[in-house]
Amino acid sequence: MSWYSQFFTELPNEFWRRAATPEMTAADVDFAERELRLSPGARVLDVPCGSGRHSIALAGRGYRVTGLDISAEAIGHARSRDADVEWRLGDMRDLPGDGGYDAAVCLGNSFGYLGTAGTREFVAALARTVRPGGGLVVDFSAAAESVLPGFTGADRVMHTGDITVEARTEYDPVDSRMLSHYRFIRGAEVHAATAVHHVYTSGQIGDFLTDGGFGEIRRFAGPDGSPFTLASPRLLVTARRVE
Fold first, then answer.
1. Which domain holds residue 170?
2. How many CB atoms are located within 10 Å of the residue 206 CB?
3. CA-to-CA distance for 167 and 230, rounded, in angstroms?
4. How far apart are CA 41 and CA 129, in angstroms?
5. Could you say which of 59, 87, 130, 192 is the most buried, measured as most Cβ atoms within 10 Å of its Cβ?
6. Cβ atoms < 10 Å from Cβ of 50
7. What is the pLDDT of residue 97?
8. What range(s) does the Methyltransferase domain occupy (predicted)?
């Protein structure tokens, strides 16, 4: 069973819901609108959507949005917000595949959840879902050019309200993975979990997309449109479904 099918329960989800500010969400959606040149009423897939922050923001701007995620808790929370979004529970590779979406967004660093074979399956599913000429945004903070320069894996402690998170990350050089070990603490409640992010080079990500049926690939260091360079902490990739 995949690590991410077990990881995203209420306490980790609540921490990330608090950590992601409205300003961060708005900047991501501004970027997607601008770089994908979304038309009014465009049909957009958000996968995986987590607790729905990007889906809800996109719907609020008039787009027809489907949000899909494997976490029942996250989808339940998203539905409770009563947004005009079609919510679906499922694996990120289990996509509609009808070619009827004008764009897809994969925000929040989840592109690295899958190994090589799984990533190819995911990209192929996106290609079947997005119409020819439609756009794609991939968000990735585990690019080799981002994480390896100066990597230390130093312990971190993060706080959001009454939730404290202790984190330690190790790099697996055999399988090119980051293993992030977390302890989520809220009062007497303690939840330990490990997240796995496969590390790919910027070039490998481009190859995944090209081989899967996408072109016009562009790379950015953030939603402000700055160029991606060595040691940029974040990689945003845009692409177009080949006609």
1. 146-196
2. 17
3. 25
4. 17
5. 130
6. 25
7. 87
8. 44-134
**Owner of token pair 């079609």:** 86
Question: Are residues 32 and 73 both part of a single domain?
Answer: yes
| Residue position matching structure tokens 């994969």 | 106
pLDDT tens per residue across span 201-230: 999 999 999 999 999 999 999 999 999 999
Question: Dihedral sign, CA of 32, 33, 34, 38?
Answer: positive
What pLDDT, in 10s, does the model give residues 25-61?
A: 999 999 999 999 999 999 999 999 999 999 999 999 9
> Residue for token digits 């799984």?
118
pTM score, whole prediction: 0.96
Residues 30 and 91 in one domain: yes
Residues 126 and 152 in one domain: no
Own/partner long-range contacts of 75-82 (Cβ < 8 Å, ≥24 apart): 75/49, 77/13, 77/17, 77/51, 77/52, 78/49, 78/50, 78/51, 78/52, 81/52, 81/56
Same domain, 166 and 50: no
Q: What is the CATH number of the domain that holds 88?
A: 3.40.50.150
The strand order across the sheet containing 43-46 reads 85-89, 64-69, 43-46, 101-106, 130-140, 235-241, 214-220
State the total domains in the chain: 2
Looking at the structure, do residues 22 and 87 belong to the same domain, yes or no? yes
The overall average pLDDT reported for the chain is: 96
Angle at 179 between CA 234 and CA 238, to 5 degrees: 25
End-to-end CA distance of the chain: 36
Those residues whose C-beta lies under 8 Å from the C-beta of residue 91, and which sit 6 or more positions away, are 5, 70
